[in-house]
Amino acid sequence: MNAVVREYGLFFNGKWRKSEGKRFETRNPATGEVLATFPLATPTEVAAAIKSAKGAFEAWRKTPAPRRGDLLLEAATVMKRRKEELGRVVTSEMGKVIAEGRGDVQEAIDFYTYAAGEGRRMFGETVPSELPNKMCMTVRLPVGPVGLITPWNFPVAIPGWKSGAALIAGCPIVFKPSSLTPLCGAKFVECLDEAGFPPGVVNMLTGSGPVVGDGIVAHPDIRAVSFTGGVDTGKHVYESAAKKMIKVGLELGGKNAIIAMDDANLDLLLDGVLFGAFGTAGQRCTATSRLIVHEKIYDRVVGDLVERASRLKVGNPIDEKTDMGPVASDDQEKKVLEYIAIGKKEGGTLLTGGRKLTGGPFAKGFFIQPTIFAVDRNSRLAQEEIFGPVLSVIKAKDYEDAVAIANSVKYGLSSSIYTNDLRWAFRAMQDLEAGITYVNAPTIGAEVQLPFGGTKETGPTDTREAGTTALEEFTYWKTVYVDYSGRLQKAQIDTARLAGG
Ligand code: TXE
Description:
15 helices, seven-stranded mixed beta sheet, single chain, binds ligand TXE
């Protein structure tokens, strides 16, 4: 039991501040322990935090990008030093196993290190002019203060991706973490504060979606929003941002499939499926939620998979030996158990798992067994995002059939194919409707130096997180023409004369 539960405030204009708002608790989903309390920011406080970001914009955009990069590198150094502490907070507050908790923090460290270097690149283009003694080029400019709204499943990594890109671009941030993981958000902001970002450049608000989330998106001084979360909330954010005609990055989940061809290396496949489906208890936007198996290897794959899944050790995620922790909240638990009931009702075959774990070490947490169903391709379990430790297995006749099944869902985030045949691998890269395709690896495992995002209802394709593409969310292109001819030159009009016409 915690003797003293720390009461956190809001962070803006360089300081932690007391809030007028009511407070809420954040709890460990494995033990029920209260970890800390946080304020529900009021509309006045939302406005104050945005004002602080706006006030910091002018100086921040004028800070040379390599100097901004120095601060990002410093933040990466602080996070490295505090990695174990932060990793443990991720595991305690969100419930992923400790190795993944540390990985969550590492992702933020990696992206900050990568984005820091972007401060010395941020390339534009020089383009030939149609007129003599004239130069044309493009430069990136920051859009202004931006809102970052993040979910609970990667409570340090996703804030790391979004803020790293915004800050190097020259945009002050107003960050709202999920109400399930405000402590991870606060620890992350502590690291940025320790690194020495100027007051107002980094701001954090906790509180409700309607007051804080909507308040950030709708505020006239917020010039771009980056959001990761559920589809319904994402669509709402998109609509609200469209009214202001600001940039929006949306990443809204997936129904990601692994295709197992009949020539796949089965040991490799099973390792990948288990990690993809049950890592983070299936609560990753890129989680392997469907396994589409060629009919020739179906029985063997299902037999081995069920045997191995039933041996996974579920328990307290802080224990290094645990394979899978709890789901993140009572709402998550309800939702996953509802889907398990739907699977049974729809006539799916429950192959393993399917129950909530109770009593003893599970008594106070949200533990669900790793669950595998054999389902019809049109069933709800084959079509809808569950966001929990439930894998749906579907039989396919051949490559074309497998791809048709994979593409039959409304999402398009990640995808994978296990095969040793180059023809299938290269065709799948073109044929799978998804922002990411893995070959001989599960649907999870994104690296920060490459673009991350999806298609269809996963989100608009014009923005991508991570990689150099991350800058697109927070910058706009300025086109610059420099005429050093000393006279008025007319594009489209003088060209005939120059060509001798
Ligand atoms: O998401 P929400 P929740 C999916 C997953 C999960 C479901 C619900 O299926 O079961 O979404 O999770 C803030 N204006 N994903 O309830 O509500 C909210 O406070 C602006 C997939 O956590 O979408 C939080 O900070 N913001 C996903 C963030 O939005 C608002 C990861 C996400 O919350 C708001 C997480 C509003 N009106 C859940 N209302 C993925 N893509 O991986 C809430 N928020």
